[in-house]
């Protein structure tokens, strides 16, 4: 997203207003907003780009490149899904679920394999081969040791995140905090300092903060370790699962949910032809059942 003069980025929300980052002078300041200001019915969220009026009051939210409802943030250039190679064991199910979630909200995704130093050579070769499938789907993949920036793909990751607004997602225990600390050693102190400057004390809540970092930003998203596809309907999920959008108009029925029993299904045929991963297809069927349950529950409300 190219930024013009006199534009500001929303870093966090306080009882007194919003802390904004000025793109022109790179200063952080506190501002209030017009009460009725929204963008497509949604109030200001962390990550928004806004304009101020002559009195320094937020009076316009610029169009969002993407928007996530839970946690509420916008304009994320890339969200990296962290999956542990070991301790806990690698889970393609969680990986596919997170990737589907991000695809649904139009947020570009990358894959970070943490704790790669715990793998033996044979295990590393097997997981690399498994990741070739996701590389084929155009997902960037990085193997990392979250405690050593000189090993594996960390230098490549540092280069890839330059000048971007990034977020890290993944289950508890995969090394998200360790990775953030490796990228920005004083990250937590800077987040706390941002809160102190707003008069709120140390950051101990589960609120989202956007922290300026070098030429980009890092979303601090406490609690972004579990997700529910509550907003996703069955047909939406059928189209946002990794690699399945390619077959969007190839099935015989437009409302095909890509089940084994679906007639004329291009996805199930692609699985049989080894064009799509059988392992991922099995994950798809499991997650689809969860989506169906949520769909049925919402219809009863």
UniProtKB/TrEMBL annotation:
UniProt keywords, alphabetically: Cytoplasm, GTP-binding, Hydrolase, Metal-binding, Nucleotide-binding, Ribosome biogenesis, RNA-binding, rRNA-binding, Zinc
PANTHER family: SMALL RIBOSOMAL SUBUNIT BIOGENESIS GTPASE RSGA (PTHR32120), SMALL RIBOSOMAL SUBUNIT BIOGENESIS GTPASE RSGA 1, MITOCHONDRIAL-RELATED (PTHR32120:SF11)
Known cofactor(s): Zn(2+)
Signal peptide per UniProt: none
Family: Belongs to the TRAFAC class YlqF/YawG GTPase family. RsgA subfamily.
Species name: Treponema rectale
Location in or out of the cell: Cytoplasm
InterPro entries in the cross-refs: G_CP_dom, P-loop_NTPase, Ribosome_biogen_GTPase_RsgA, RsgA_GTPase_dom
Keyword Cytoplasm: yes
A GO BP annotation: ribosomal small subunit biogenesis
Top-level taxon of origin: Bacteria
Listed GO CC annotations: cytoplasm
Cofactor binding: number and manner: Binds 1 zinc ion per subunit.
One Pfam family this sequence matches: RsgA_GTPase
Gene name of the encoded protein: rsgA
Main location: cytoplasm
CP-type G domain location: 65-227
Catalytic activity, EC: 3.6.1.-
Sites where the protein binds Zn(2+): 251, 256, 258, 265
Protein's recorded name: Small ribosomal subunit biogenesis GTPase RsgA
Residues engaged in binding GTP: 114-117, 170-178
Domain EngC GTPase: 74-225
Oligomer and partners: Monomer. Associates with 30S ribosomal subunit, binds 16S rRNA.
Biological role: One of several proteins that assist in the late maturation steps of the functional core of the 30S ribosomal subunit. Helps release RbfA from mature subunits. May play a role in the assembly of ribosomal proteins into the subunit. Circularly permuted GTPase that catalyzes slow GTP hydrolysis, GTPase activity is stimulated by the 30S ribosomal subunit.
């Amino acid at each position: 997203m190219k930024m013009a003069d006199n534009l500001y980025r929303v870093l966090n929300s306080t009882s007194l207003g919003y802390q904004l980052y000025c793109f022109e002078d790179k200063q952080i300041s506190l501002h209030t907003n017009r009460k009725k200001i929204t963008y497509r019915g949604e109030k200001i969220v962390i990550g928004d780009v806004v304009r101020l009026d002559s009195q320094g009051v937020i009076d316009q939210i610029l169009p969002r490149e993407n928007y996530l409802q839970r946690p509420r943030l916008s304009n994320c250039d890339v969200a990296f899904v962290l999956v542990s190679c070991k301790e806990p064991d690698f889970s393609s199910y969680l990986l596919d679920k997170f990737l589907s979630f991000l695809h649904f909200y139009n947020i570009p995704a990358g894959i970070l394999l943490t704790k790669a130093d715990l793998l033996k050579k044979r295990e590393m070769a097997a997981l690399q081969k498994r990741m070739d499938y996701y590389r084929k789907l155009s997902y960037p993949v990085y193997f990392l040791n979250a405690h050593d920036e000189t090993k594996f793909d960390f230098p490549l990751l540092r280069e890839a995140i330059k000048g971007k607004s990034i977020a890290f997602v993944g289950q508890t225990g995969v090394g998200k905090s360790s990775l953030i600390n490796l990228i920005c050693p004083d990250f937590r102190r800077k987040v706390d300092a941002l809160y102190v400057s707003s008069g709120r004390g140390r950051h101990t809540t589960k609120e989202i903060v956007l922290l300026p970092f070098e030429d980009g930003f890092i979303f601090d998203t406490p609690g972004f370790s579990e997700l529910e596809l509550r907003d996703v309907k069955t047909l939406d999920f059928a189209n946002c699962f990794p690699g399945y959008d390619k077959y969007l108009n190839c099935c015989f029925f437009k409302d095909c949910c890509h089940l084994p029993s679906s007639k004329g299904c291009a996805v199930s045929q692609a699985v049989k032809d080894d064009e799509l991963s059988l392992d991922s297809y099995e994950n798809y069927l499991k997650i689809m059942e969860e989506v169906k349950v949520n769909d049925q529950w919402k219809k009863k409300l």
